[in-house]
Design the sequence.
């Protein structure tokens, strides 16, 4: 009886909603069909006639409905339908087949969407901003934004000034001074430029098909990147895509579909590639594109062998260092560390005032980098230019001074480390007769011995923070080179000699370690949002238990290293070493493509166009995408850029401003647990759907649903939920409901998590280790089995201590380029490779861009084009900037903003020259990640004027037994570009 | 009557360019009747950052200078264009987007080059201090709101108070010789307009070449003191705020245990002197 009433209530509610909301009434005009809800034994049932703007329902079981929802019994029906509704019960009933839905996906999906819309249509969101504008919130990879909208058009986007009723900001007292951050959020240029990329002329607004691609005839793979496109309908595009998915599985078998995406996405936990896209790809089964740990390379393949931290890919734990550094440190050595450009990761400009405080407190600053980077330029201090790839030699020389002059922490070395004798023997030259002295290193690094000694003595005598990499605790251009593992290893060994974890002695550049609340839970994007993927995301750590949803799992275990996609496609075989954070040793488990009994890849599901900008030796990608064996490429993208124009079918996706999402600023999770430590205020926000999708573009979620409708998988994919429902599910899974109502959150848009009170602030990272105590920082790593002694005692290494001689590498024993004791091995491409150096006498550095984020924000005809440090307008075209030293420029007759050709045997790129003394002589500095790939002739065989400087960088792995990228080991020559005809293209390409 | 002013600290600007982007964000695609017509997507820089590089490696730095319409108290643009340009009571100068149509002479009236010509709409255009937002109750213009380093600060105060602050806080305006009384004021403008001389002092200590810390460095010009510094742990010293193209100086280095060193430097722009070696006293 109760179920009868509830079922009748459904039609009342639908009709009542239609009465109140014209848009809903309109929706009820869309389809005519009969839906039925019943119990399994047909004892209770009701059917609903949808159509003509209303719903008429009748009691009883219909014998030929278009769709049917079946409960095992009436009691279950009541339990699931009577408020308050617990989604866990739904999930459990589905998993046990006690709740089933039958019917064509087109109908069932429309039905569940309609119910969902009925439930959410009354929700109010956003704030009236006057002048006809409404203020919404959203996130970017560069920070939070208020979005002001008028008449479905974005007027402006601004950082967020915190309101009086937002939580108070923290304060830090250090050396008698009190510091508190500004009460507003900060934003990177690539975030602030968002309006220009939303309304970009490069937006894809209609589905398209390559003109000479015929799924039933000639496919003309060889013309990819050259042919034009014709607009087609969504139905045609979706049909072709769904049919190709079925066809390649049918014709080629397991593993024939490959997934390929960028390393990042527009911000938000639902729309992220690790969320909706992962669930979609798992639903169809895919050969995984295996991401190398490209931000962490040297730390992952090298650093972790000395001190563990595998769950962070070898990065240092980031707790409490802000207070400790300001309190205790006397010097900060920035080594390949430019947080003012890279923002750590997702850290906006939150660290900037902290570095101002350090300067105010008189903490000395030193910057070791071939480029006088923006942090060095801004915060000041001593710039030590070092020849790219040689930093490990300088590090050994610092150790040499400390050993010679007794300037290291002998007690710490004795009690907290192992293998020091072996390292000392290497450094003092007992093995090879060559002491690694300051004089020895000069020939490698170009740094004067007295400068090294001055630094070594200051460092050995004063409490020093080592800011290694952009985050201070990891990353850094030096770790993406042939000597990247050596460098990260050297950084850890240096800190071990100085007493890592003792007061004032730690890793950090003030980017990490703010006194925020680390216990408040909101899922990071790496927890996979709605993916339900327990093995490919960090979901199992917390999210899966907190957010009731169906599991997804990729049944295909075959994988291809991202850096070897071209080889996989052209040669049909390749191999790699995995990114496996569970243990130090996971990385040794090499794998091969193809996997036994698997199909080679025949179809690529490509997400966006970032790979030309981010793949080393990227011209090979152009050739690979033209492979005949690759029968179908579909690209789902927001903009027409990069390799999008190599697709057969293009599906236009919308931006995060045109759909619903939810997220936390900087909340990464996974490898970057507690990444919010970079922020001055933790902020969680609903990412309002600010405007309707432009043109015919659709949200990623919608596109996936539409494809899966054709495969009978849409109900599994959506679980009957819309994107907004999933946002609510994330809200409910988090700690937010304890602090703010959904209603208020939806309206106001954000919540500031109160800072941790002073007594509860987490201790400084590694202090526990330095003091020989149990681990006491709030990170769920390493895994319990990784401890050698009692749980929480000691490190993840075999000895439980920092190992100068890494036992894991010793056990592996197969990589002569990674000996157990870190030794200086010159780069396989650099000034020491004399034959190549004679032909290509300039070293190319390709750091992350400062204004754009990977390919985000760049190109796209946006505002950033007009920033001359980013792109320069020459003859009507916006060229990517390459920085060259005045002497190198003069020797080649190059003037400021001249067009120049950067070239080597791998290819050539046309850039605009920026002549600056901030880049050392012999080095060219041009950021990777151009979004534009624009060959002036045959793709893959001609100079690129888009600025994809990775065309020049080597595909070679850091060492033979790693899948580590090493783009910063690259030799080139440059010359003035005077046009295609005038250039010796044989030399250029 | 209080007027809007900007105080910009050149030493704090690191050219994130957010001020430039915010101005684009505000005006591209948006018409604000009575205030400003929309800005072209490309080509205009109503608010922009200029740069200049000083010195040579490894003592080299770039100074960044955010520039825009100075909202001059005595604005030359208000004197042309037949009333199309006017100054509000709060000091903000507005080019009327209707009345100014076709009046190119307004562009050339600005000695600072801060007015741009919009070819499409045939309008002279410039930064309006976000008057349209301030009139709606916004607390500050967008350039200062988006500035992450605190380099740009908007203040509403009297010209008299600003004059006082100019003196006590050592603020300067760009090209005061234009005589227009700009209301954008700069702190540490010497980073852009002046020069430094620097070097690295080394010497033998126990028969090994070392950086010399604590060396007393004095700079004189025509016998008059022009600046002084002490070398740091790397032996580096830097004497700043020297005027443009200011000719010959003498550098005097002295350090206990070493012979004093004097050297002549000719300064047309910032100069890093490389390593200066002191000889051990015998």
Sequence:
């Amino acid at each position: 009886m109760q179920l009868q009433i509830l079922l009748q209530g459904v039609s009342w509610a639908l009709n009542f909603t239609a009465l109140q909301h014209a848009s809903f009434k309109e929706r009820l005009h869309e389809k005519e069909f009969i839906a039925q809800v019943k119990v399994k034994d047909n004892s209770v049932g009701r059917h609903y006639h949808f159509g003509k703007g209303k719903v008429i329902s009748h009691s009883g079981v219909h014998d030929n409905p278009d769709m049917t929802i079946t409960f095992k019994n009436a009691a279950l029906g009541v339990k699931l339908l009577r408020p308050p509704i617990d989604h866990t019960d739904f999930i459990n009933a589905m998993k046990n087949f006690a709740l089933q839905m039958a019917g064509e996906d087109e109908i069932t999906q429309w039905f569940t969407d309609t119910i969902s819309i009925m439930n959410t249509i009354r929700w109010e969101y956003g704030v009236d901003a006057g002048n006809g504008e409404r203020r919404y919130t959203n996130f970017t990879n560069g920070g939070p934004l208020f979005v002001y909208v008028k008449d479905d058009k974005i007027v402006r986007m601004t950082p967020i000034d915190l309101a009086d009723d937002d939580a108070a900001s923290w304060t830090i007292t250090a050396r008698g001074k009190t510091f508190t951050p500004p009460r507003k959020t900060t934003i990177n240029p690539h975030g602030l430029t968002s309006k220009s990329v939303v309304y970009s002329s490069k937006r894809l607004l209609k589905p398209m098909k390559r003109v000479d691609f015929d799924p039933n005839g000639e496919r003309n793979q060889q013309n990819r990147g050259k042919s034009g496109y014709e607009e087609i309908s969504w139905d045609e595009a979706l049909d072709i895509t769904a049919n190709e998915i079925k066809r390649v599985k049918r014709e080629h078998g397991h593993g024939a579909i490959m997934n390929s995406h960028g390393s990042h996405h527009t911000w938000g936990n639902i729309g992220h590639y690790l969320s909706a896209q992962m669930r979609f790809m798992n639903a169809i089964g895919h050969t995984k594109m295996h991401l190398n740990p490209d931000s962490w390379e040297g730390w992952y393949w090298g650093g972790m062998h000395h001190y563990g931290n595998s769950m962070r890919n070898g990065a240092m734990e980031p707790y409490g260092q802000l207070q400790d550094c300001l309190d205790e440190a006397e010097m900060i050595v920035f080594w390949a560390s430019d947080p003012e450009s890279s923002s750590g990761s997702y850290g906006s400009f939150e660290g900037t005032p902290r570095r101002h405080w350090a300067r105010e407190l008189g903490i000395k600053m030193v910057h070791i980098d071939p480029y006088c980077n923006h942090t060095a330029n801004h915060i000041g201090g001593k710039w030590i230019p070092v020849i790219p790839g040689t930093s490990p030699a300088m590090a050994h020389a610092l150790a040499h001074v400390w050993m010679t002059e007794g300037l290291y922490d002998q007690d710490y070395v004795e009690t907290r480390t192992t293998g020091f004798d072996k390292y000392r023997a290497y450094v003092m030259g007992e093995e090879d007769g060559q002491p690694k002295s300051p004089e020895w290193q000069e020939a490698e690094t170009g740094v004067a011995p007295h400068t090294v000694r001055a630094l070594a003595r200051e460092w050995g005598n004063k409490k020093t923070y080592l800011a290694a990499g952009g985050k201070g605790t990891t990353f850094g251009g030096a770790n993406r080179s042939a000597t990247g593992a050596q460098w990260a290893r050297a950084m850890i060994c240096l800190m071990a000699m100085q007493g890592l974890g003792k007061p004032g002695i730690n890793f950090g550049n003030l980017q990490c370690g703010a006194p925020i609340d680390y216990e408040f839970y909101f899922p990071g994007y790496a927890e996979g949002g709605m993916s339900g993927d327990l093995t490919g995301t960090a979901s199992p750590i917390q999210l899966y238990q907190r957010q009731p949803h169906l599991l997804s799992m990729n049944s295909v275990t075959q994988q291809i290293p991202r850096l070897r996609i071209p080889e996989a496609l052209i040669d049909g075989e390749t191999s790699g070493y995995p990114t496996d954070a569970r243990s130090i040793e996971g990385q040794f488990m090499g794998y091969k493509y193809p996997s036994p009994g698997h199909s080679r890849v025949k179809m690529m599901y490509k997400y966006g166009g970032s790979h030309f900008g981010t793949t080393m030796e990227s011209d090979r990608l152009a050739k690979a995408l033209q492979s005949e064996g690759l029968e179908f490429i579909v690209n789902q993208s927001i903009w027409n850029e990069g390799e999008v124009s190599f697709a057969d079918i293009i599906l236009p996706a919308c931006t995060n401003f045109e759909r619903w999402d939810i997220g936390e600023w900087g909340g990464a999770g996974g490898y970057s647990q507690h990444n919010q430590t970079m922020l001055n205020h933790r902020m969680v926000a609903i990412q309002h759907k600010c405007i309707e999708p432009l043109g015919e573009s659709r949200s990623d979620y919608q596109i996936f649903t539409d494809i899966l409708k054709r495969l009978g998988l849409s109900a599994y994919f959506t679980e009957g939920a819309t994107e907004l429902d999933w946002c609510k599910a994330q809200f409910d899974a988090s700690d937010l409901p304890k602090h703010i109502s959904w209603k208020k959150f939806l309206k106001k848009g954000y919540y500031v998590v109160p800072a941790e009170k002073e007594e509860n602030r987490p201790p400084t990272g590694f202090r526990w280790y330095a003091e020989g105590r149990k681990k006491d920082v709030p990170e769920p790593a390493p895994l319990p089995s990784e401890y050698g002694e009692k749980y929480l005692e000691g490190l993840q290494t075999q000895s439980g201590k920092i190992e100068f001689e890494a036992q894991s590498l010793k056990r592996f024993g197969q990589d002569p380029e990674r000996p157990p004791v870190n030794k200086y091995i010159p780069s396989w491409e650099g000034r020491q490779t004399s034959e190549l150096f004679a032909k290509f006498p300039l070293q190319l550095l390709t750091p992350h861009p400062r204004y754009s984020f990977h390919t985000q924000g760049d190109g796209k005809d946006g505002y950033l084009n007009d920033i001359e440090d980013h792109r320069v307008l020459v003859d009507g075209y916006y060229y990517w900037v390459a920085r060259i030293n005045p002497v190198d420029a003069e020797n080649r007759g190059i003037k400021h903003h001249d067009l120049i050709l950067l070239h080597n045997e791998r290819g050539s790129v046309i850039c605009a020259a920026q002549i600056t003394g901030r880049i050392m002589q012999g080095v060219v500095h041009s950021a990777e990640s151009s979004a534009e790939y624009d060959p002036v002739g045959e793709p893959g065989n001609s100079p690129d004027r888009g600025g994809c400087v990775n065309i020049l960088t080597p595909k070679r792995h850091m060492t033979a037994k790693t899948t580590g990228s090493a783009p910063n080991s690259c030799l080139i020559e440059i010359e003035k570009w005077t046009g295609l005809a005038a250039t010796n293209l044989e030399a250029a390409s | 009557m209080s007027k809007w002013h900007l105080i910009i600290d050149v030493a704090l600007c690191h050219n994130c360019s957010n001020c430039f982007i915010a101005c684009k964000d505000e005006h591209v695609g948006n018409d604000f009747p009575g205030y400003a017509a929309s800005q072209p997507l490309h080509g205009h820089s109503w608010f922009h950052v200029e740069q200049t590089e000083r010195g040579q490696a490894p003592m080299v730095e770039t100074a960044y200078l955010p520039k825009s319409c100075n909202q001059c108290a005595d604005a030359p643009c208000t004197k042309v264009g037949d009333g199309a340009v006017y100054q509000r009571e709060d000091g903000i100068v507005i080019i009327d987007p209707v009345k100014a149509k076709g009046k190119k002479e307004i562009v050339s009236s600005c000695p600072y080059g801060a007015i741009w010509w919009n070819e499409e709409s045939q309008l002279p255009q410039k930064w309006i201090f976000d008057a349209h937002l301030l009139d709606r109750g916004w607390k500050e213009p967008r350039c200062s709101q988006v500035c992450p380093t605190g380099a740009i600060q908007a203040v509403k105060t009297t010209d008299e108070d600003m004059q006082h602050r100019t003196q006590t806080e050592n603020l300067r305006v760009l090209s005061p010789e234009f005589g227009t009384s700009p209301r954008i004021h700069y702190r540490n403008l010497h980073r852009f307009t002046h020069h430094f001389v620097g070097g690295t002092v080394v010497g033998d200590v126990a028969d090994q070449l070392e950086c010399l810390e604590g060396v007393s460095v004095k700079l004189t010009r025509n016998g008059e003191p022009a600046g002084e510094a002490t070398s740091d742990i790397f032996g580096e010293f830097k004497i700043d705020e020297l005027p443009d193209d200011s000719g010959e100086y003498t550098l005097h280095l002295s350090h206990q245990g070493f012979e004093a060193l004097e050297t002549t430097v000719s300064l047309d722009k910032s100069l890093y002197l490389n390593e200066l070696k002191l000889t051990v006293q015998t």
About this structure: Chain B touches chain A through 49 residues (CB under 8 Å). The domain at 3-192 of chain B is CATH 3.30.70.20 (Alpha-Beta Plaits). The longest strand of chain B covers residues 195-205.
